[in-house]
Amino acid sequence: GLQQKSKRRALPPGPKGLPVIGNLRDMALTGLWLGAREWAQKYGELVYLNIFGQGLLFVNSYEAAVDLLEKRGAIYSDKPKMIMAGELCGCENMIGLTPYGDRLRRQRKLMLQALGASRIESYHPLLEIQTHNLLQGILNSPDDSASIIRRYAGGLTLLIVYGYRVMSNTDKLLDMADESLELLSNRIAAAGNVWIVDLFPPLKHIPTWFPGAKFKRDAAVWKGKMEAFVNEPFDFTKQQIEQGTAVPCYVSMLLDDAALENKDQAVDDQRDFDIRWTANSLYAASFDTTISAISHFFLAMLQHPEILHKAQKEIDTVIGTSRLPTLSDRPNLPYVEAVAMEVLRISSPVPLGLPRRITEDNVYKGMFIPKGTLVFGNNYNMVRDPAIFPNPDAFDPSRYLDDADEHTARLRDPRNYVFGFGRRKCPGQYMIDASLWIAVASMLAAFDVTKARDEFGREVEPAVVYDNSIFTTMKPFRYDIRPRSAQAVRIVREAKGLSD
Ligand code: HEM
């Protein structure tokens, strides 16, 4: 099959694999994007690999991403059917795994209704309150900032999506998300991992006690956890609605609308399903992405004190030191804006996007891409294209500051890459754009971040160790974070928080 085809029409280039297993050994389980960037440098804008005959295509240039993932979106927007993750572990209805079609269009419409560009201003007060909570948490326990960032990332969407307030680091729903997402991205649906049952689907019928059937026993346990992760927060909100104590949020607003709109049970059930699963996907998708972006912000600040000070000076000059920034200050703080953009670029939280599946044979610039190939939009490589981002590995906000015509400005805006492409592009992009900015601006206003010191007073270099196969999250590294002044302590304590 494959070889005959490739004789007839050339597949895109890529590292040579072994017989049968193909490129299995080339697939790293964490930090796959690092290898994928090397392949891009060696082989060019499209790189093709296979694992046991399953084709994998890495789309490495922006031009090819637009041509394929956007312009040919009709055949590049589907998803792999994953037996292990989907059927056996109960994740098949998560939006990132939902096949392209009517259901997806309906669900994306719901998400964009709530989180589209025009809605975001209505969330500004919530985003500011949640940010104050983040600052107060750091002020109270600076050594515990990793848990505080995690609480911020989960708490933000729990509040907006479910109207649920997280008041401690050991909250039940937070822990549940943490555990479920770790399982999902590092075990169940790890980017470089293939489950034998996905290659040989009849294996799903083998009995659980059978030798080699450990995957089925694991799947049964994981499925229970995934179901709780989807249902418990949703049931919380439903209960609050019944008791008349619901806070306006994504779930409560949509359920209210549904109740007003119709009395038809079948339509209601479909709405219930759509709201339940989109809510879970919004929650799931915001966790590691936000954590990655904010930890890269800290990393950059402790590596570049001059950038930290320049941004602080802008804030002090434009808004003074007697209050924290708000989202309405954003247009007046161009350097802080550039820092936030550079954080998005350097972190590229979902570096290879989420896999698509091409539904028809396709040819691009003479290269043949077979139907069924899994397609990864390698945004990590695109935001490191030296033609657009000179010296691409350096954290350098000044790259956005000189005047540029519209075309150049668009090309160098990291938001055009890191959120993916076309019909599956991230529906959370407008929300995170606002939440990341206010978090970055407020932390700059209130804190200094420096390298930690060891017992001999020597600076500790932060170690960057990626710990995930889909997101660029890192193992916690040490740094020193402290308020800039007594005045900073006061404005953080006085800022309106979650418990006010
Ligand atoms: C900096 C933060 C984030 C980045 C870089 C990011 C990036 C991405 C990327 C690259 C994709 C895949 C797009 C594609 O296939 O082309 C995606 C999908 C998705 N994102 Fe985000 N995301 C972020 C935060 C969020 C947040 C906060 C939410 C929810 C509030 C969210 C919700 C989703 C959902 C539901 C999908 C699946 C869409 C689909 O399959 O149709 N993301 N995101």
From TrEMBL:
<keyword id="KW-0560">Oxidoreductase</keyword>
<dbReference type="InterPro" id="IPR050364">
    <property type="entry name" value="Cytochrome_P450_fung"/>
</dbReference>
<dbReference type="GO" id="GO:0016020">
    <property type="term" value="C:membrane"/>
</dbReference>
<keyword id="KW-1133">Transmembrane helix</keyword>
<feature type="binding site" description="axial binding residue">
    <location>
        <position position="426"/>
    </location>
    <ligand>
        <name>heme</name>
    </ligand>
</feature>
<keyword id="KW-0408">Iron</keyword>
<keyword id="KW-0503">Monooxygenase</keyword>
<dbReference type="InterPro" id="IPR001128">
    <property type="entry name" value="Cyt_P450"/>
</dbReference>
<dbReference type="Pfam" id="PF00067">
    <property type="entry name" value="p450"/>
</dbReference>
<dbReference type="InterPro" id="IPR017972">
    <property type="entry name" value="Cyt_P450_CS"/>
</dbReference>
<keyword id="KW-0472">Membrane</keyword>
<keyword id="KW-0349">Heme</keyword>
<comment type="pathway">
    <text>Secondary metabolite biosynthesis.</text>
</comment>
<dbReference type="InterPro" id="IPR002401">
    <property type="entry name" value="Cyt_P450_E_grp-I"/>
</dbReference>
<dbReference type="GO" id="GO:0016705">
    <property type="term" value="F:oxidoreductase activity, acting on paired donors, with incorporation or reduction of molecular oxygen"/>
</dbReference>
<comment type="similarity">
    <text>Belongs to the cytochrome P450 family.</text>
</comment>
<keyword id="KW-0479">Metal-binding</keyword>
<dbReference type="InterPro" id="IPR036396">
    <property type="entry name" value="Cyt_P450_sf"/>
</dbReference>
<dbReference type="GO" id="GO:0004497">
    <property type="term" value="F:monooxygenase activity"/>
</dbReference>
<keyword id="KW-0732">Signal</keyword>
<dbReference type="GO" id="GO:0020037">
    <property type="term" value="F:heme binding"/>
</dbReference>
<dbReference type="GO" id="GO:0005506">
    <property type="term" value="F:iron ion binding"/>
</dbReference>
<protein>
    <submittedName>
        <fullName>Cytochrome P450</fullName>
    </submittedName>
</protein>
<keyword id="KW-0812">Transmembrane</keyword>
